[in-house]
Amino acid sequence: MQGIKLISMITASAALALSSHVFAETPPQAVKTAGDAAKGQQIATQVCAACHGADGNSMIPANPNLAGQHAEYIIKQLNNFKSQDGKPAERDSAVMSAMVAPLSDEDVRNVSAYYAQQKPKPGVANNKELAELGEKIYRGGNLETNVPACSSCHSPNGAGIPPVYPQLAGQHAEYSAGQLRAFRTEQRANDANKVMHVIATRMSEKEMEAVSEFISGLRK
């Protein structure tokens, strides 16, 4: 029985890897990602700093740290908050939609380049017991429920794999758990081939909180 579960787990992980490979071959903004970090700093100071910190290290647990995040990933997320060609934004947030609406494509590239160059401050997991459970899931998944290891896509040290998979190391636990819940309910649905939705639906509330707690103290 354990062997069958292991085979099932490997198959699921392979399917996820294959789907993400297909997506990675045709990224939405494969056109241009290089930006001017100096110009981006001006935008960050005027538009982003209040919520995400001047250097991308947010002081608000509900708002993500952006320091050191892959520029390509930030570009995609900012564009997903925008309404495109008369269609609703792929990510639903009245606050973020209002923030990005006036930004040009060049502005988006510039501010993304700026935050990507900033140094993330190391985080700390406050709940050791919860973090230990989270580490087991992050590194080994859950064979019983076919949850793949987070590290297979986000890397063992949480550095992520650009352009598709974001850096997670040191991210606020509150934010990470909130995003997992949003993926589960499809309140957030901008993941390639619904990969994150599928994973999140297989996770319990405690597992989401545990993984998020572990991630908050992970250092790349």
Quick description:
Helices cover 54% and strands 0% of the residues.
Features:
220 residues; mainly alpha; Cytochrome Bc1 Complex, Chain D, domain 2; 2 domains; 54% helix; 0% strand; globular; disordered N terminus
What this model shows, in words?
The protein has helices at 2-25, 37-52, 71-80, 94-100, 105-116, 128-140, 151-154, 173-185, 195-201, 205-217. The chain has 220 residues and is mainly α. The chain folds into two domains: 2-23 and 123-217, Cytochrome c-like domain (Cytochrome Bc1 Complex, Chain D, domain 2); 37-116, Cytochrome c-like domain (Cytochrome Bc1 Complex, Chain D, domain 2, Orthogonal Bundle). Helix 3 packs across helix 5 and helix 6 (128-140) crosses helix 10. The longest helix is centred in the first third of the chain and has 24 residues, at 2-25. The protein starts with a helix and ends with a helix.
